[in-house]
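Table 4 source record.
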Amino acid sequence: MSASGSTGPAPVVVHVIEDDESSRIASSRLLKNAGYVVRVYATGAEFLAQPPTEAGCLVLDLRLPGPSGLDLQQRLTTAENPLPIVFLTGHGDVPKTVRAMKAGAVDFLTKPVDAPVLLDAVARAVARDAENRVVRARQHDARARYSRLTPRERDVFAHLISGQLNKQIGYDLGISERTTKIHRHQVLEKMQADSIADLVRIAADLGIAAVGKVR
């Protein structure tokens, strides 16, 4: 992926949230020279006023007027399309670094930072965002297909991914082996799966646990 674009029509945007004007300008200039589209904010509130939908990432200061960088990170975890975060601060310490990284930050950099180090962190954040978007799109599609299953088909789905045979599923659910086969066919067809292995991968995306034991 190039720094100036993504696979979709929207550009890759790096959002710099930094209250210090000189640092904000310096980071913005560096990133623009590297080919990124850059948007700058002095506070987290400015950023939250118009949540972005484009691919990209955040370069986020720790100390900000209003909500801190860590507060903003926590709030963004519930966003529909949370952007990966690179922290860049002059006020870091071990507890804050650990908290940020455990919450999913791509990196935690301390000012002053060498240009190649910041650019490398941003590149990794942009790459992670691209990967996350692929996963979210796959999950969205899987949820749409799963919603078309009947309650009984969902029961069969959960048993199928455990590796049970048709007769074992039928026994557990109190239905005939023939009826189980019909439900199995419907589950595979509606989920657009070619095999049980495909169903297992879809179940992992949806967070569906297997039910039943192979006997």
